[in-house]
Amino acid sequence: MAVEPLSQKEIEERLSELPGWSLDDGRLTRAYRLGSHFAAVSLVVHVARIQDELDHHSELTLGYDTVSLAVNTHSAGDAVTGLDVELARRVEVVAPAHGAR
Length: 101
Prior knowledge:
globular, four-stranded antiparallel β-sheet, single chain, alpha+beta
């Protein structure tokens, strides 16, 4: 499936709908703080399932009570695409259930 890079304007528009997400070094990024290590691990597992469903994977970093994501699309020349935005949107839907802030 061909995935086209988003323009800077399109990225800014999409980010306005994703509080907490930003563009950093050509990738969409977000860090979450959770109430415990277990909650952070639980969120990582949930994000891993979403990534497998989309067949699109971010750099996913687990800290003691933090989870960080950074994503762009390698097959589109490491650009941000709609696939990255969809991953971010889906993570935003599940993160609150884990107590992420």
